Amino acid sequence: GKHFTDALTADGALQAEAAHLLIKQGDAGMAEICRNTLARLATEVRNSIGFFEGQYEGAIQRLFVSGGLSRVEMVLQTLSDELGLPCEIWDPLENCEVALPAPKRKALQQEFSSLNVACGAAFEYLRS
After folding, report:
1. Is the dihedral of CA 120, 88, 44, 19 positive or negative?
2. Which fold does the domain 2-90 belong to in CATH?
3. Structure pTM?
4. What is the 3-state secondary structure (H, E, C) of the chain?
5. Please, where in the chain does CATH 3.30.420.40 lie?
6. Are 97 and 72 in contact (CB under 8 A)?
7. What is the arithmetic mean of pLDDT over 9-24?
8. Which of 40, 62, 94, 107 has the smallest number of Cβ neighbours within 10 A?
């Protein structure tokens, strides 16, 4: 996350919020920076996938992505193109019943991609 943000903000020359807004608006320069940074990330992910598939003799069918920029379609599409796998936003509450009023449930859906650490910790706590 930090490496990606540093690349997008030119190591502090641009505020992170402004960089994210430019990406969401489809700015060509930011899209190019994203693609280059994601290509490097994809290489690391591809290596991890190769290791996992070799260890467990199974094939990875899709990739779940989380974090703030996972909501940007260009990010998901670039990763998918680089890896040759479908990439989806991880919904940590997909199989959970969440008792919230409709407006709050809808607002929560916008934040799922940022809740991965909290949900992972909660799931681990419940498992033990």
Report:
1. negative
2. Nucleotidyltransferase; domain 5 (3.30.420)
3. 0.73
4. CHHHHHHHCCCCCCCHHHHHHHHHCCCHHHHHHHHHHHHHHHHHHHHHHHHHHHHHCCCCCCEEECCHHHHCHHHHHHHHHHHCCCEEECCCCCCCCCCCCHHHHHHHHHHHHHCHHHHHHHHHHHHC
5. 2-90
6. no
7. 77
8. 94
Bridge-partner residues for 65, per DSSP? 89
Query: Which tens digits make up the pLDDT trace of 30-72?
Result: 888 888 888 988 999 999 999 999 998 889 999 988 877 787 8
| Angle value at C-alpha 35, between 32 and 36, nearest 5 degrees | 90
Cα–Cα distance between 126 and 95 in angstroms, integer?
15
pLDDT at 18: 83
| Pair 65, 88: CB distance under 8 Å | yes
pLDDT beyond 70 at 75: yes
Q: How far apart are CA 107 and CA 24, in angstroms?
A: 19
Distances (CA, A) of 126 to 96, 101, 108, 111: 13, 24, 21, 22
